[in-house]
Structures
1.
Amino acid sequence: MEITHDLSRNVFEAVVDGYTAYVSYAVVDGVFDVEHTVVPREIGGRGVAAALVKAAYDYAREQGLKPRATCAYAVAWLKRNPSYQVPPDSGE
């Protein structure tokens, strides 16, 4: 699955079988907040949401941003992936 990042819209997207899934985020004061994860029902259950959220938090990590989640899916994802909860080399 190809995931694209539209920096101008703060969105990570993937098109699967003609359906577009996306994660939208905001960056404020060094905090990267996944606000929404949207996967059409037709492509649900294939790991699309997990791949998009991971791509988003990988980007946040590369930028040295602190991860946060407003979106319920992203909250659960961060709990399952505790290594993403603090940026690497942050000293926290």
Note: The chain has two helices and five strands.
2.
Amino acid sequence: MVRVIAGTCRGRKLKTLDSDATKPTLDRVKEAMFSMIMEEIPGATVFDMFSGNGSLGIEALSRGAKHCMFCDISADCVKIIRENIAALDLGGMSEVVKGDYKEAVQAMIRKDMRAELLLLDPPYRKGYIEKALTAKGIDRICRSGSEDIFPPKKTVAVCEHAKEEDLPDVIGGFEKIKTRSYGTVAVTLYEYRGE
């Protein structure tokens, strides 16, 4: 069972796709992940780049994020995301793109959107984290802290991956901040430092 752990939707169950192609984040990993970024969440615009059933983006909205862009290449996943968003009455704070992260980046650019939080839980061991963080246009939707915004905001990327995947210290404009392991899973944080 997948549920929202904390915030306004705490305890609510989420629909999942009954498929080997998706792997919802375990509660203990999700709790650890969100405790690492709790100060970044309030008021943030979030980009859930490999949404699955939308669990991570919904958790961020429940904890005080102001908006989330969800995307998934699977039509079945997009249907489940929309059903979960509707069930939790989060439609006014959400957008869903049926397509991959590259298409969603371009959709955000067209809308002149910036994201303070990127959530990445892609299929493991396929290099998707590096590909997503260097996707065409990713720099245009990230904040480096140099804009005239007070308080200054930087984009943080939260990446779930297999523990044995050794992610590089720098990926494009992103610099690794920390990695924590939870059993066979690891969570790595990157901060966007600019092109």
Note: DSSP finds five helices and ten strands in the chain.
3.
Amino acid sequence: MTGGGSPLNRVLGRALDESFTHLRFLDEYGETVFNTFQMEGVIPELHRLRSHAETNDERAVVESVIEMAETVRAGTHLYLVFVGD
């Protein structure tokens, strides 16, 4: 992650390291898909990511992704999909 562009990319660029065992594999330029079972690892990482948000826009985006992840975890045959540039 270069940390440029969208609010989410900026937060990811500041935060991601090897300790993010799921989110560090987000492809900034391609598509990354997480399934319902992966939410058990993704959601805690998103909560950690939130602490790296510096602006209201960044916090709002991370909160929106957390809400979507919670929906995926509670559902069946749902996926959290990140689409790169």
Note: The mean pLDDT is 93.
4.
Amino acid sequence: MLKASKKLVNKFRIKEFIGLYVEIIDSTNENYIGLKGKVIDESYHMITILIGRNQKKIPKKPCIFNFKPNKKDEIKIAGVDIIGRPEDRIKKFLKKSRI
């Protein structure tokens, strides 16, 4: 987890990413760095971003994302922290928080 508090990141993980604005701020693949757009789909290992009129599939694992849930907030999170199907990621977090 990066920069944002652990509590904030944990709350963010249980949110739906589709519809959020995202920018890739670091990656092992230099071609991904600086890409930004709206998240239109998410799967186990990939996030699909709408960049202009084009769709770009980005793997989660090698990237660090900067999500903007609203105009003033930014949440930086490593892709390895959000690997998994959205519904499984949410269930997993809720199980851990109940213990």
Note: The beta strands are 21-27, 36-42, 46-51, 54-59, 63-68, 75-78.
